[in-house]
Amino acid sequence: MPRMLDVSEDVRAEIGDDEADRLLAGENAPGSYDCTSCRTPGDPEQERTSTVLFVGDETAVLAFAHATCIPSQVVRVSEEQLQGAVRSITGQEPQPPAPAPAPAPASARVPSDTRQAVLGVTSGLVLIEGDLHPALVVEPTAPITRPGSYGTEDEFLPLLIEQGFLPVSGLNAKPPVLAGWSVLLAVGQLHAILQPGTAGGQPVAWWQAHQPLQVTDGWRTAANKSHTVLVFAAPVGSIGQQPREDLLRDALEKAAANGSLVAAAMPLAGTS
């Protein structure tokens, strides 16, 4: 039976025509695999399968995923993240169990004038229109000033609105999809929030975890079901680290009522 492999043009360009053709012919393709997104078994002889190439500073790793989870694509990550993914894929290092339903935080540095600002990212499930939706909440640990500005005014939300995020007044409806942005969930963990590259190039990381963020099984299941993640953002001090998802929702609703919340929906590991 022929193998149902998808090899995107970006992946082909990275690995070369000969290797791509060998994959499509079944010479180097796996007989079975654990999906690099949802971590459940897959079989390229029974279901459409995506080839996903993780490229670091010095290393490249080819992984496989259900095509219904993520499309075939090239994912550029730090060498440290790639080595962690290799350990997870090969089983050389056990992964910690998913946490309890309480949201999980992570952080990364983003440019802010001449200093580095830290963004905290919290994952959780948010109930909207009767359904649970996977969500990420982004909150800086300090005011974000406009790059190149010498002022002290926090312009985190205006900067995001310029990128296409929309102000929200409540959690009664899902925000619209923000074109070109996506959330990268790989090897069952959260790696990055991607934004469009310049001049139509490859997406680049707007936020990237120092270490891949473990999410709950419920969050990952909801994300793979909807293929969409809701991303909320608020200025420093608006949300805080909430120990439970109900408290996280309360904090989001208060921020929205105060006009301090923007949001966007993003495809899961999309490549716009």
Automatic annotation (TrEMBL):
Compositionally skewed regions (Pro residues) per UniProt: 94-104
Location of region: Disordered: 25-44, 90-111
Name of the molecule in the record: Uncharacterized protein
Species, as recorded: Streptomyces tamarix
Lineage: Bacteria, Bacillati, Actinomycetota, Actinomycetes, Kitasatosporales
